[in-house]
Write a structure and sequence with these properties.
Elements: E1 12-15, E2 19-22, H1 23-29, H2 37-41, E3 56-60, E4 65-70, E5 81-85, E6 88-92, E7 103-106, E8 111-114, H3 124-129, E9 133-137, E10 151-152, E11 161-164, E12 169-172, E13 192-196, E14 201-205, E15 225-228, E16 233-236, H4 250-263
């Protein structure tokens, strides 16, 4: 007896939901755009059968429309489907202006979202009272630093800063000790801040002549003066030869002065 193979359109299966179905018709019905079922599934799943998140893409276009597409594309603008418009900032309320769904409108203090298309209002009171608007951000609920759990703001003064204390953020006056590279040592009167390269920070210090870049660090002796050497100021003893416009013969000059005093001149 010959064995006859059934054609594909003779193969059926029973679905617990839809009864007996023709397999050929069932598979053809699963095709979309000329693509077979396996090809379509590859748009959603990777080779291990896991959902491929990279195949799901979203964007907001220039018309403020939220769009989505699924699959792999070389064309950045191909096959996007419109989902819905998203929030559209419209500025402050203007009477008798048409507002649409998801428009964001200010009333001078709060921000409202419009819930239906083509809504206009005679005045701001009607806008606020409408069932098609609601307050999205209220000025009454605005956050402040003091309302945050790990921030303690007390007796704040102009110029205060907020610094982490180790357990919370707290306000304090900005002083030199607030700076990480300044020593907390208490200075004495007339001291200056000087950088200590060994400690890599600024420290209170006396201001000495030797600290100046154009003054010699040589230790002076008693009765010396600072004189300029041509490159720096240095300790030196003042001598008669250092005096400008001095007499060349001090002995003769002394005699002349004495005679003038005695005899008059």
């Amino acid at each position: 007896m010959a064995i006859t193979s059934p054609t594909t359109d003779q193969l059926t299966f029973r679905s617990s939901t839809n009864g007996v179905l023709n397999l050929d018709a069932y598979l053809e019905a699963a095709e979309r755009g000329g693509r077979q079922l396996g090809d379509l599934l590859s748009d959603l799943f990777d080779t291990n059968g896991n959902v491929d998140g990279d195949k799901f893409q979203f964007r907001v276009n220039g018309s403020n429309m939220f769009q989505a597409r699924v699959g792999s594309y070389t064309d950045a603008n191909a096959n996007w489907s419109d989902i819905t418009t998203i929030f559209e900032p419209r500025g402050q309320f203007v009477a008798n202006t048409a507002y649409n769904r998801l428009d964001v409108v200010g009333d001078g203090s709060d921000l409202y979202i419009v819930q239906a298309d083509n809504q206009s209002f005679a005045d701001v009171a009607a806008f606020r009272a409408s069932a098609n608007t609601f307050v999205a951000v209220s000025s009454a609920s605005a956050l402040s630093l003091a309302s945050i759990g790990d921030v303690a703001v007390t007796s704040v003064q102009s110029g205060d800063i907020i610094r982490w204390s180790g357990s919370e953020w707290a306000n304090e006056a900005l002083t030199s000790s607030s700076l990480s590279d300044v020593a907390a040592t208490t200075p004495t009167n007339n001291q200056i801040l000087k950088y200590n390269i060994a400690n890599t920070r600024y420290e209170p210090s006396d201001n000495d002549l030797a600290d100046l870049t154009n003054v010699s660090a040589t230790t002076p002796t008693t009765n010396q003066y600072l004189t300029y050497t041509g490159s720096e100021w240095a300790p030196a003893t003042i001598e008669y030869t250092h005096i400008n416009n001095r007499p060349s013969d001090i002995a003769s000059t002394g005699k002349a002065i004495a005679m003038a005093i005695v005899f008059g001149s």
